[in-house]
Amino acid sequence: MMAFSNDQVGNFYDATTMLWEKYWGEHLHHGYYDPHVSIQEQNDRQAQVLLIDKMIEWAHLQTCHHFLDVGCGVGGSSLELVKRFGGNTTGIGISLSSYQVQRAESKSRSMGYGKQLKFLIADALNMPFPDHCFDLVWSLESAEHMADKTQFLRECYRVLQPQGRLIMATWCHRQTEQKPLTNYEQNHLQRIYSAYCLPWVISLQNYYDLAQELGFQNIQIADWTREVAPFWHKVWQSALTPQALLDIIKVGLPAIRGALTVRLMIRGYAMGLLKFGLLTAVK
């Protein structure tokens, strides 16, 4: 397991988020691609919004009054949630990146949601919120950054109201009950961890077991690897234009390493090592 401090993770996103926004907008996560439709016919930014819609639909989330967006990025998910659930919905987004928090605040104000949304720098393993204060905890591609997965889910459970819902999507590795990770697979993952400031990832079944141990009820999991895997091919293509290459070089080493590691993500999905897992559960 690799160890990255909160400052290291925050600095990584401080350095690279502006570049991502330039080419991909406010959603710092995978897109959902319909496997029955040609990839060329699907819009990439719409696919990112569609992923959020599909997660809400899959989790049967009908209402939301006060939510927490863990790893909020520049506020993309938070904005989609308040748009979907209306003027009575409020939310708080947390990130380790000061740049992301500033951008999220600016976006929410400019779009007229400044009174409904707040964003702050906070550690998801030690959240600065009282018990039982949110009816939804939303985590879209943030759990992979958590060095202590149990503590992360414990904190999600703590801040949820009774009957509150957790909805999360995260990078996972394949199931290992029947066949442990090989040395080659472990080395492949370590290279991804190093580039993207990840301590480690676990399997979707591991998340299910942890949620069950912590007392979550009505736990459901799903593997959407097939639906999201094309995303990394699109990211690679977007990085190959002369302007994008120049911008990557200008940002420096974090962006250069991140761009080169896209090929490892593509290969990881193709070989069945990387998985995109969803979990929803009720307190």
Keywords, separated by commas or semicolons:
alpha/beta, Rossmann fold, seven-stranded mixed beta sheet, 11 helices, globular, 283 residues
SSE layout and pairing:
Layout: H1 6-24, H2 44-58, E1 66-70, H3 76-85, E2 90-95, H4 98-110, E3 117-121, E4 134-140, H5 149-159, E5 160-173, H6 183-196, H7 204-213, E6 217-223, H8 225-228, H9 230-238, H10 242-251, H11 253-270, E7 274-282
Parallel strand pairs: 1-2, 1-4, 2-3, 4-5
Antiparallel strand pairs: 5-7, 6-7
Helix pairs in contact: 1-10, 6-11, 9-11
Order of helices and strands: HHEHEHEEHEHHEHHHHE
CATH superfamily: Vaccinia Virus protein VP39
| Rg of Cα set | 18 Å
Alpha-carbon distance between the two ends: 29 Å
Q: Unreliable stretches, pLDDT < 50, 5 or more residues?
A: none
User: Structural class, please?
Assistant: alpha/beta
Number of separate strands: 7
- What is the number of helical segments per DSSP (H or I, 4+ residues)? 11
Helix content: 40-55%
Quaternary assembly: single chain
DSSP strand content? 15-25%
How would you summarize this macromolecular structure in one to three sentences?
By secondary structure, the chain is an alpha/beta fold. The chain contains eleven helices and seven strands. Helices cover 47% and strands 19% of the residues.
Description:
This protein has 283 residues and is of the alpha/beta class. It has a single domain, classed as Rossmann fold (3-Layer(aba) Sandwich). The chain contains eleven helices and seven strands. The chain has a seven-stranded mixed sheet, with helices on both faces. Helix 1 runs antiparallel to helix 10 (242-251), helix 6 runs antiparallel to helix 11 (253-270) and helix 9 (230-238) runs antiparallel to helix 11. The mean pLDDT is 95.
